Amino acid sequence: MWLLITFLVYPAKDNHGTHAQTHIQINNPSVEHTFGEQIIFRAEIPSSANIDQIQLVFTPEGFKNSIVIPVNISINNRLLARYQLKPQENILPFSTITYQYMVTLTTDDQAVSDLFSFQYDDNLHRWETLEGANLFKVHWYDGDLAFGRAILDAAMNTLDRFKKYLILPNPENLDIYVYASPSELQEILDLTEYPWIAGHAAPENNMVLVSITPGALQLLEIERQIPHEITHLRLYQYFGDRYDNIPTWLDEGIASLAEAFPNSDYKFILSGGYENETLISFKSLCESFPPTASEINLAYAQSDSFVRFIYNEYGSNGLQNLLDAYKQGYSCEKGPSEVFGINLRQLERLWYQDTFGEAQPLMANELLGWSILCIIVLITPTTAIILTARRK
After folding, report:
1. Strand order in the sheet with 136-140
2. Who has the most CB within 10 Å: 26, 98, 101, 189?
């Protein structure tokens, strides 16, 4: 996604002293970078006459603010700008960076170049690539050709296998980048404080990043992570600018539904939440998952179980209709009412009964409501007797 640098537009100079903005020719622009360390911009300018200073403005994809750095001009009119990346600057690997030269003339007039761009690749590794049917490109650096082929096969198989659940748009030219360890991916994404994260979907860049270590467990991780992240991206494409309206429990639950092998740990995590009375209400999982490691696995396990219950209870049509209700803008709590005739809380009660074999206990706010109602019911007859006695 290209971001226009709107603040470079200045009014034309007139008799009232405002400044003119003209176009300036920049020749042979080029960029070199060392991923995570520095970016070097080079170019040439036909003439440096009447130039006071030159600045370079660049915008990493997904950034709201642009970065401005000074440009050095050599005696042969060559331009050089160097930028040292800061630890807190989390520029997504393989994203597009757009840049533009801004020139201030000795007359205080402004001149700007064309808008250029380059891809900020992770060039710390030597990447291998496999392509499949104009749908997927798989990139990896650790593992043999069979490893890359297994990634590509899992991506292709995901599309057919998922049709029984939902109809979602197929991705086109989707790039899948496979890192060799979760810790490396977390460091790149600046998510080291979230050790449970093993993959990331970047729909704006039409790519997914996963971490899979070649070895004995690689097939299990491939069939889990690849369908999961691809489904996130397909849901993004399906919702468009209303993607924020899909409840987090539904987004993650559907992505888990796409996995070839259900996570066997979820059963034990759910049982632990039930026995310890720490289950999370789905209302609180509408917008986001809890940030703590102790709760995140339970949130994933509940979402997986809840979406599977909805599919088993209402079929693929029911799940599709629920997804469409949220796409139309219904709130998290009212989506089920529109499709199933019951609200989210009632749907949660049905899931609890089906999953644990007993009625769900009332929550704190519900207990408070019932307590108030009981007090009203008990007080009302007493009040009537008192009023009758006073009349007498």
Report:
1. 128-132, 136-140, 174-179, 207-211, 199-202
2. 101
Domains of the chain: 6-120 (2.60.40.10), 125-245 (3.40.30.160), 251-385 (no CATH)
3-state secondary structure (DSSP) of residue 376 = helix
Q: Is 372 helix (H, G, I), strand (E, B) or coil?
A: helix
Place of tokens 């049509």: 317
Give the amino acid at 265. D
Is-contact 57 102, C-beta < 8 A?
yes
Write out pLDDT tens, residues 103-112: 999 988 999 9
pTM beyond 0.85 = no
Q: What angle do CA 18, 21, 25 make, to 5 degrees?
A: 160
**b/e per residue, 105-118, with b = 16+ CB within 10 A?**
beeebbbbbebbbb
The Cα–Cα gap between 118 and 61 comes to 11
Q: What is the DSSP letter of 241?
A: G
